[in-house]
Write a structure and sequence with these properties.
It is a single chain. Helices cover 55% and strands 11% of the residues. By secondary structure, it is mainly alpha-helical. The protein has a three-stranded antiparallel beta sheet, with helices on one face. α4 (112-124) crosses α6. The longest helix is centred in the middle third of the chain and has 25 residues, at 65-89.
């Protein structure tokens, strides 16, 4: 049975209530009551489905994620510039030619949240797409072999690993 604590339930309730209030724009007592009822119902269903845990509400990442997202933003920007440079220069004058390749990248990350964050980060980075996750391997398609080598060096995986508490076994 998955770990269940009150703080994850309260966090889920707060997030859902905030999203409902931010998207509603109407604050009459009747609509606020319907909103409260719908949020309580969703939290109840999530609790009954036993999906309220540290993966669904990663509270432990609140302080670490902004730093990772800043690093990822810079990585995305740099990759964008590299892909644009490859396309603009054309195939004859390329130092790094566009030769699409696929490979399986082995990861030591444990837990669904860690692997999903890694695969999504790969896909967000221009020139690479995570096609499939199978156990501890991620099938990656890349525009260049250098992109695959960059992933094999493991900086992205190390940064995700450094976020902490993402190594939970499945």
């Amino acid at each position: 049975m998955r770990e269940f604590t009150m703080r994850y339930t309260i966090s889920l309730f707060a997030v859902l209530a905030f999203i409902w209030l931010a998207n509603s724009g109407h604050y009459s007592p009747l609509l606020l009551g319907f909103g409260l009822l719908s949020v309580v119902f969703v939290v109840f269903v999530a609790h009954r489905m036993n999906i309220v845990d540290s993966d669904s509400q990663p509270l432990h990442l609140l302080l670490a994620l902004p730093g990772y997202y800043w690093w990822l933003f810079r990585k995305i920007l740099r990759s964008n510039l590299e892909v644009v440079a490859c396309v603009w220069r054309g195939s004859k004058s390329l130092k790094v030619s566009l030769k699409p390749a696929s490979a399986r990248i082995t990861t030591s990350l444990r837990g669904d949240l860690a692997r999903a964050l890694y695969a999504n980060s790969i896909t967000l980075t221009p020139g690479t797409v995570a096609v499939d996750i199978d156990g501890d391997e991620i099938l990656v398609h890349a525009l260049t072999a250098d992109s695959l080598e960059d992933l094999r060096r493991g900086e992205m995986e190390a940064r995700i690993n450094g976020l902490g508490v993402l190594k939970k076994s499945c």
